[in-house]
Amino acid sequence: MNAMGLIFSNIHDRDIPELTQERTMGSIPFAARYRLVDFCLSNMVNSGITKVGVITKSNYQSLMDHLGSGKDWDLARRKGGLHILPPFGLKENVLYNTRLEALRGAQNFLKMSDEEFVVLADCDTVCSMNYEEFIREHIEKRADVTLVYVKKEYDPQKAHNEMVLEIDDSGRVTDIQFDPRKAGVVNSATNVVIFRRTLLLSLLADAFSHDFKHFGRDVIARNVNNLRIMGVEHKDYFVQITSLNEYYSESLKLLDKDVYNKVFKSSNVYTKVKDSVPTEYGNSAVVKNSLIADGCYIEGTVENSIIFRGVKIGRGTVVKNSILMQNTQTGENVTLNSIITDKSVVIKDRRVLSGCETHPFYIGKNSII
Questions:
Q1: Helix or strand or coil: residue 280?
Q2: Does residue 3 contact residue 115 with C-beta atoms inside 8 Å?
């Protein structure tokens, strides 16, 4: 596959400030053992893309620790491979605020590459996409730009930077709207975009010379009539994480076997491999309908929950409808319902904590309750 990938790791950090205070969107833990970046990165590797740049901004130490050399994704290569792109790609040491400014810092990486196509993708989605199919369609339809979209029910009251496409019978994008006011089923762009590399560089140079700020409005929508912009529909499972509530609800949906299989059985999802001991269950342990990572020690009851590595649950403790991240520890006779604990939280004996299904209670990293 003569294509390279660019992943935006920080572009949606403001959506979940609770989880991105000390990490990027891409390194948010998900599904007991993964990070959000694993999904788009695995999609690229599964599509034959072996050169990937990850654009960073701030708080990216945990992301670098997770990605390492790219070995776990078969990206530790002499040619191509994984490239962490720091926020200061130019002489001006100014942090970017928009996608277009982020691409300004990645210009040199694009210029020094020789791949024909570039796939842009974000870290706020959980899905399995075959970029190879989309690139093939991009070539067959002689597209200048290809936008991947999903059909979804749209509510203007809940609009969140929605980019809605009008598409004709040939698949050509004829109009682009941002957060339109009309409700109904729409073609919602996924922020997966395919360009010829040389065209992308040309469009970026023009945008910077005009001091444009918004990639979607100023680079794509502005050129609807000038370029052949095509839309291609992604028809399989697709979830966009845009808030802490969505992170919670979409995580717990994985406890449904059918949903879990759509996410993890349709294609390989790779992640950093850690050699932990198996989880140990005490004589009083009861576990129902939960995802449990390795390296845990459970003596209490766990129901409808997601438990990350190294979690310890004390005797008599009941954990329901909750997400406990790595190295969380509970004492004895604790009750947790609709709780999200970040890493290394300690909850002492006899504490009773509860959120609700529509508003989980979040406990920050390294907290002691």
A1: strand
A2: yes
**Residue 119 host element (H or E):** strand 117-122
Q: Could you count the other beta carbons within 10 Å of the beta carbon of residue 254?
A: 19
Long-range pairs, 149-152, Cβ under 8 A, ≥24: 149/187, 149/188, 149/189, 149/190, 149/231, 149/232, 149/233, 149/234, 150/187, 150/188, 150/190, 150/233, 150/234, 150/235, 150/238, 151/185, 151/186, 151/187, 151/188, 151/233, 152/185, 152/186, 152/188
pLDDT in tens, 280-322: 999 999 999 999 999 999 999 999 999 999 999 999 999 999 9
Decide: 219 and 208 in contact? Cβ < 8 Å: no
Residue 79 per-residue DSSP state:
S
- pTM score > 0.85 for this model? yes
Whether 298 and 314 have beta carbons less than 8 Å apart is answered as no
Report the DSSP pairing between strands 318-320 and 335-337: parallel
The secondary element (H helix, E strand) that includes residue 193 is: strand 184-196
